[in-house]
Every structure is written in C-alpha cells, then in structure tokens.
Automatic annotation (TrEMBL):
Domain NAD-dependent DNA ligase N-terminal: 3-251
SMART domains for the chain: LIGANc
Name under which the protein is recorded: NAD-dependent DNA ligase N-terminal domain-containing protein
Keywords, in A-Z order: DNA damage, DNA repair, DNA replication, Ligase
Lineage: Bacteria, Pseudomonadati, Pseudomonadota, Gammaproteobacteria, Oceanospirillales
Organism field: Vreelandella olivaria
Region (Disordered): 33-58
Signal peptide limits: none
Amino acid sequence: MALIDDALYDQTVERLASWQRCLGAQPDHRPLTRVTSSSGTLEHPAAQRGLNKTDDDGVRRFTSRRENLWIQPKVDGVAITLRYVDGELVEAVSRGDGERGQDWTARARQLPAVPNTLPEPISALLQGELYWRMEEHIQARSPSSGARGAVAGAMARSSPEAATLEHIGLFVWGWPDGPNDMESRLAQLSALGFDSADYTYPLDDRRDAAYWRDSWFNGPLPFATDGVVIKQAERPGVRHWSSSPPEWAIA
C-alpha cells in the first residue's frame, strides 16, 4: 500500500518545486528519490528522465515550434528499465532517482508481462511503466485509483502471489538505443510483442493533444493515467541522455 494517495504525492512534489522557485533555487523536477543507499541498487544504462509539466498554453507553445510530434497516455505506474542482451533479460532497474535504482531483475523475471526472452536475439534497452491492470478503467470517474501504490506494494513484497504478479502489466514508452524515428521504433516494438503502438499516435490538426487527452481521460483503458506525454519522433542518442528533463518531450 502507498503511504499517501498518488495525487497528493504529485501535488506535494509540485509545491516543493514552487517553493524552490520562490527562494531562487533551481527546482529539481525529478521525482523524490526512494533510493536511500547504494546497497542493492544499480546504475541506469540510460538515465530515467523526468518530464517538464505544462498546461494548454505550454502545449501550444511546444507544438508550434516542433514538427513530427507523437502523443502517448502518461501511464500511472512504476517506471522500470529493462536491459536485454542477445534477446535475454539480464537486468531490471527501478526508477529510483533517475540515475540509480533498485535491482529488480529477479522480480521482473517473475512478471508474466515482462518477457524473459525476446522473439529476436537482439540487444535492447527498454524503458517503461509497470501498471496495475484494470478492467475498462475510466480515469474521469476514478481519478484516485491507487494503481501506482498497488504496483509498488507488489514489487516490494518478499513473496507476492502469482495472481498478484499476473495483475501487473507493462507499457514500454522508451527505447533509448533503438531506431531513431518513431514509426520504426513502434513497428519493431510490435514485432517484439509490446503494445506501445496501440497507445502512440501522431498529432495533427484533426486529432491534436486536447483530443487525445480528453479521449483517454473519458474513455476506457486497461490502466490508470495521470495526463499525456508529447514527444518528438526523433530524439538524441543514448550517449547524450541525463536525468534532467528533456527538451524534446513534455507532459
């Protein structure tokens, strides 16, 4: 169980950033770290990056200056990095502070939603969200579902039941060392068995960010959401990634 409601936690993080700005300090947009020591932690091969959050005006400014933009639901779960070598899962790391996280390799191998072996013998670094599977969940009706806390609690248990592990899904939203253009990334993720393409759409005049935000907020989904993420189709290579929020994506 989460110690506080997910929405209250997010509000507290935003309030901290506001106080830091008032005091003239540079706000730290990364989620508050739960990594309290280096024992049992691993360094992320590519940093798990937080996102700058904005409103409708900010979205208009962001989209007016960029082309070839895509949108995904911001899945409300627990972030994880999966590293595959020659198609075999060799490492799983929790979000942590974005640069180091808990070693979740053993637990990830128990999750039915996380393949231990890919259908192709490729090496890949995947970033995604572990989420609590929900039946026809409508975010507008149940904004405080506790879904994130349910996943975090399951991952923290010493011996969770098989039914609990089966209740955890995976949404892959990033492939830092994968194809640089979005269409190729989505096609290859689909070939590997991931459903990222089912929830990733290009933005255009007919279906803009507001359309998808409202559709996902008011329509049924298999997971809880806490917004949307807009990102450029092309982004810097993995060597240039740090834990600071990127310029090519926004929530």
